[in-house]
Amino acid sequence: MAESQEIELRGHIIDSGIMTQLFDRVMDMGGNFEILVFEVGKKKTDPSYARLRIAASSRETLQSILSELHRLGARPLKVKDVHLVPAEADRVVPKGFYTTTNHPTQVKYCGEWIPVQAIEMDFLIVVNPEEKIAVAKPLGKVQKGNLVVVGEQGVGVSYPERPREQSTFEFMHGTVSPERPSETLIAKIAKEILEVRKNGGKIAVVGGPAIIHTGADRALAGMIHDGYIDVLFAGNALATHDIEYNLYGTSLGMDISTGKPVMGGHRHHLYAISEIMRAGSIKNAVDTGVVTGGIMYECIKHNIPFVLAGSIRDDGPLPDVILDVMEAQDAMRKHIEGCSMVVMIATLLHSIAVGNCLPSSVKTVCVDINPAHLTKLMDRGTTQAIGIVSDAGTFLPLLAKQLEIQSCAAKK
Amino acid sequence: MAESQEIELRGHIIDSGIMTQLFDRVMDMGGNFEILVFEVGKKKTDPSYARLRIAASSRETLQSILSELHRLGARPLKVKDVHLVPAEADRVVPKGFYTTTNHPTQVKYCGEWIPVQAIEMDFLIVVNPEEKIAVAKPLGKVQKGNLVVVGEQGVGVSYPERPREQSTFEFMHGTVSPERPSETLIAKIAKEILEVRKNGGKIAVVGGPAIIHTGADRALAGMIHDGYIDVLFAGNALATHDIEYNLYGTSLGMDISTGKPVMGGHRHHLYAISEIMRAGSIKNAVDTGVVTGGIMYECIKHNIPFVLAGSIRDDGPLPDVILDVMEAQDAMRKHIEGCSMVVMIATLLHSIAVGNCLPSSVKTVCVDINPAHLTKLMDRGTTQAIGIVSDAGTFLPLLAKQLEIQSCAAKK
Amino acid sequence: MAESQEIELRGHIIDSGIMTQLFDRVMDMGGNFEILVFEVGKKKTDPSYARLRIAASSRETLQSILSELHRLGARPLKVKDVHLVPAEADRVVPKGFYTTTNHPTQVKYCGEWIPVQAIEMDFLIVVNPEEKIAVAKPLGKVQKGNLVVVGEQGVGVSYPERPREQSTFEFMHGTVSPERPSETLIAKIAKEILEVRKNGGKIAVVGGPAIIHTGADRALAGMIHDGYIDVLFAGNALATHDIEYNLYGTSLGMDISTGKPVMGGHRHHLYAISEIMRAGSIKNAVDTGVVTGGIMYECIKHNIPFVLAGSIRDDGPLPDVILDVMEAQDAMRKHIEGCSMVVMIATLLHSIAVGNCLPSSVKTVCVDINPAHLTKLMDRGTTQAIGIVSDAGTFLPLLAKQLEIQSCAAKK
Amino acid sequence: MAESQEIELRGHIIDSGIMTQLFDRVMDMGGNFEILVFEVGKKKTDPSYARLRIAASSRETLQSILSELHRLGARPLKVKDVHLVPAEADRVVPKGFYTTTNHPTQVKYCGEWIPVQAIEMDFLIVVNPEEKIAVAKPLGKVQKGNLVVVGEQGVGVSYPERPREQSTFEFMHGTVSPERPSETLIAKIAKEILEVRKNGGKIAVVGGPAIIHTGADRALAGMIHDGYIDVLFAGNALATHDIEYNLYGTSLGMDISTGKPVMGGHRHHLYAISEIMRAGSIKNAVDTGVVTGGIMYECIKHNIPFVLAGSIRDDGPLPDVILDVMEAQDAMRKHIEGCSMVVMIATLLHSIAVGNCLPSSVKTVCVDINPAHLTKLMDRGTTQAIGIVSDAGTFLPLLAKQLEIQSCAAKK
């Protein structure tokens, strides 16, 4: 082990599992380590501290290992300033550019640590030297002359800590299993939602059209009406079928109250889109009394913003749908800002898109009937995620009910 | 088309889809047909009648086609007596033996049509000439000298008719989709259960251990307590975890009320089995106050019979488990007799086993989180089957609730 | 049954299952029917003919039934001209507009039947009276003054016939099962591909990134190289990971040849996108020798057009990706024209999008590891569809092998 | 933290992830720890050593924590003899009995460590004081007077170490993903099989009937013929459909070579069972030339033992099927002894049953089309398990091919 370097980690490195990941990675990559200092925080609120010497047989392997440990929050004992290289042209960035994690990140510039704004996974970091500001940017938005961070030097990652008091998000972390006590879990999620609200946190919902098809739209509309939701992310299908149901009592041509297909019902979604086109927008349709209930109606009535992102399988689409996918991403980002919790229901496409934009601190609840979808969603670097294999049509009504029961109980 | 034969069909052959299947099979098999008579029943209660000439290019193909049509209820205009051949030895049966469908079946013997008793799919028919009785028997129970029906001659199948008034079972028939209005569907199933009860019908439940793991055991125990269930088919795991929950508050070591694993909880299922072994049986454990609640407790308290069928993955097992799989099948058959409805929840093994024994007239409701399991279950020849992709933990509590609401409403 | 009307059907109405669907729908909707004439084609090539009287208790029900039968190809004995109403404004269409099926369709105008061009499901029909041309258009492209067909009067649908000689597409029709003889099936699909090529048919592939992740990219690149594919429909992910693999030997940071993650590999996909951004386009990157192999390389080298449709979960994206989803749909439509066969592999989003644009006559093969995805894909009105539950990583290499074996055998 | 105790761990405690699990459990359970000694092995072959003080706020919590750590191999510094209590009656065991892991285990008796024989998960340990032998026994086999270990005192668990050189089993450990390079993975598994054979290791296959339905039977029969398999675990269905295919060319009535259903084919599986009943056993049927090929034939011809375990969904069953599930378990155990590797293909029931009986050192490869089944199988405490989401029909032929290629290459 010819090459070695000392690194240090601070924080709740035991509870959060960082230490264990660190050991594993070093060993996986053929390196070795020596524990120089290891001070475990005495009280729950005390951070721990560790200093280790990482060794490897070659300079290159050592760099690879350090690069991985960097992403867990490990830092060399002495950190130099970030290395900045200007972009040659719009979207043409320097080789070896640093790519971000979705954890809080700082860069050392002129000897000072400055936080990276708008952090998101797989972005670049651009530093504005005059204003001493560092901002995370997607590759496609880097402009000529932007000073881009290259390499890991001078970049610090704050790997999220797992608080010692276990919340629902901790005990479920990373697991997706249909064999969980469903009602217990729903009650816990309702509790978390009320907690987030009490603390002034912002809650987003990402939803797919199965919410309408399974008859859970009333539950979701009720939750919007009652002020539990701050922003809705969805696509053309959810909005279309919601409006179809309000106008014709059907969803994809099926009568929700009987579950039976209605004659001529296959036309209803197109008729619904046509009505909104005629009105000019969903808002106009609500304002003029064309649409009188449902999820979109409650959003309009309660000034809850929504982003309807376009997709290549859209019929119509509704005039409110954002056709350009990058514009849609920007709209999502704008509304994600400040969210503390995101509930994702029965949509893989929109959930992954929103998940991509989330910092790792946001709590996410993913509900899908397909365990494989949940596995994909949970694998996105969120540290506080719950995956529930369930049916939107039974999950949402039970959640709405729990919110009602628990908020009544709280008022007493 | 050198070879041809006339056949006839009677009954609700249009509504039940028999006519359409018949057309398809003839064409699929390279045959041809001519409609000689086609009288559609004028009123809902009137049967239809069709006479067709089936033609094929060879005698062999014609026989194959007629053999398929036979299973749909088609008969030659003139039916001869069944052909009977004695079994050479126990389990050694004549070649070309007739294998049954799960539809009501008759054999023509001495010029008379006699019904086949205990009909079940993939059985043989044995005729007792003295008593003029025909009984369906599994291959493994045919005894030396039994007169076994060979070929289709003289066998008549009554393909089940689909009544014109559509019930829930008709409109859902054969479809498995997670995108159905869940609450609507659950309300309909509650209605069917109450209907069956009102008409004196017998209801069976087939259940897997996920009922306990997802916290739906209270709902099922309640339904047994309230008299909705007449027999329970399950395995060692459901009973063990039900008792584990009653004794230790855990299921597979997880605390159902918090959803968290309990220290040392991995031992609880073995401790539960040990307690029942000590008592001698579940009944003894209930009678002596060891077990004081849960699904098995309610079965014992309300004299609801249960069949716990053994499987090779069993721990223990409990003393009540039937270890011999053929004995377990016989026990299931005994209790299936007279059932009008079977609700299958979250178990593939036990549901297929019970499904194999059901005559086609029994209504079945299959609930599973895995659509592939439902597809397998629905493909068993039951003509009135509903497949619901849902989570036992949300489905059963909502069903129990609906039963309560609807039965209260009915009393008023 | 106070109200009745006579209708007629022509063609292979038995083989294609039309007759059977017709019976079912009439009965499902509470109507009744009387068969007035039923002439079954005597030879395989002869069409059949049926005339029926459809009856219902009310004018409204009768209309509903006739409207459904219309979509199966049934027509009144005397057909009047289509009813045309001008669009008030762009995208504002007359109420009760006719919505298309994906079957060949004709409209009667000035007493003549004229074919509807560019037919696609859920479109409107616009008639140009001067040129006597009828074109299917999506709702969003109807312009002020366009004469839009309203109601079903004067519209004729040619429900696709199922030829009596059964091909692979017929025998598998509509079924999705993992329990099929896989190698047999792959050999059959290879045979169909060679058949289509021999007859000058055009073949499209729709592919997802799992093709790269599972190491099946070489097989697909080989098929493009060997001239089996005419157009590729995919998204940013497939192209990015294909190029990542060519540049760095990884896919999503995993070394395809060893299956292990590569240090720093999580950056490779962004580095790959950056290289293409620097080059300006995939074509430039191939022409300047930056990209030297893979699926996209083969497309460029052999002038195979590709459509990379944008989605909201895209990183980057590559400069070749079409960001506007409606533009992407148009690009897909342009290249779908003239396709006889589409092979869809491991992508739900792009497969549904392409499937939406297909006329019902196009043969489709859908391969996915998830049976639920196949069920969704098969349910799109294509009459010749095969669903195969399989793994791209084993399916494509075996298919490429079969194509090689069978084409060699054919040359001998 | 009033209560504390010192424990020690030895071995490859870093590489194997034991240390990291230990930290997590202590924290999860509200305890605390202090690292007293931590010596990391300098060379790959050197074991590490750690001594920690575990603290908790109460005696009870501390015991719970120590009980969990025990299962990871941690031991108190001074170990006392095991506590033995005689069983009151057959199957009636002392309260608080120790339940085993599937890791190598020792008990301290009369001051000496003696190994526990026949270790398997969820068993009890019985000590024979005369012969100084300790044996693991299932609850149901404990006899009156047997001395049963109670509590963890004196029991030592050797948590399996993960060797530093990573094999296929290490890098895949615990992950189930359809998005892996399939051919690469299959080549690696072939390499492992050849490695096991070279070292004289025993290989078992657990298989479901989908092997026959998907046409992979020839590949498996070939592998048995070529001497790669030492024992086969399956059920009535695999054997029946294998024989059906040999006798009639069909599997579940479908012609494997064309993939089409054969007329009357639904009877073939019963006819196949009937033939074996007539012969008396599969062996007799092979010896008398009734069965002339297939998986069972190769087993008989090459003296490869098989266990056909009965299940409640069996038709027939074949005379070779073991009807009593506990007898079947014993038969499985007998043949599992000495196995180094188990390949589980397309059966959940039999795979779980076999998996239950495996010590943790056995390598397992699980292949299933359903990722949820793999998740269940991988969750059984095996430390070297690979889960592959794939189709038996493509996986097995590719594996057989790789075995051929690699074994040829090895001979050169």
**How many DSSP E strands of chain A?**
19
User: What would you call the quaternary organization?
Assistant: homotetramer
Question: Describe the biggest sheet of chain A?
Answer: 7 strands, mixed
Distance between the termini of chain A: 66 Å
The main sheet of chain A orders its strands as: 5-10-8-9-7-6-11
Q: What count of helical segments of chain A does DSSP give?
A: 14
Radius of gyration of chain A: 24 Å
Most extensive contact = A-C, 50 and 50 residues
Give the low-pLDDT segments of chain A.
none
Helical content band of chain A: 25-40%
Q: In percent, how much strand structure appears in the residues of chain A?
A: 15-25%
Q: How would the global form of chain A be characterised?
A: globular
Provide a compact summary of the structure.
Chain A has 412 residues and is an alpha/beta fold. In chain A, 35% of the residues lie in helices and 24% in strands.
Characterization of this structure:
The structure is a homotetramer of 412-residue chains. Helix content of chain A is 35%, strand content 24%. Chain A has 412 residues and is of the alpha/beta class. Chains in contact: A-B, A-C, A-D, B-C, B-D, C-D. At the B-D interface, α2, α8, α11 and α12 of B face α2, α8, α11 and α12 of D.
